[in-house]
Design goal:
The chain is of the alpha+beta class. 46% of the residues lie in helices and 31% in strands. The protein folds into two domains: 40 residues; 97 residues, Nuclear Transport Factor 2, Chain: A (Roll). It has a five-stranded antiparallel sheet. It starts with a helix and ends in a 5-residue tail after the last helix.
Amino acid sequence: MKAQMMKKGGRRCGFIFVLAILLLFCLGVGFAARSETILSPRTVKIKYVTDRKEINYVVDQFRSRLRLLNPNVGIIACDHMTEVIEEGIKDISFGAVCTVQNGNDRLTVLMCGDSLGASFTWEPSGSLKRESVINFIKSNCSPVK
């Protein structure tokens, strides 16, 4: 009887040991896949938009979105139009340094939005540098956050 119980106990221990090994293996594969995804570098392309038609199109998109947020504010002009594209994603983000007007008040702002219309952000800025536009896009309107 003790021998039978020891065999059953041995089988249980063996079965539990195999389950534990399988569980650890599955966890290891899951963590490996997750770390690969997190650590894999994303390729981001930055393009300075110089085509007048494309600039006008993006500014019109900014105007439409801004009108929804505040109908009293209008865009006078935008400079340093920049496009950020993440490889493998069909969403593109645009940004620029724009001059906006509310009544008699004019203000320099950074604006960005994505081509799918999921995000649009603007905030006052004293900077007129293209690097500021790139950083603003990456922080506020990146295709993948």
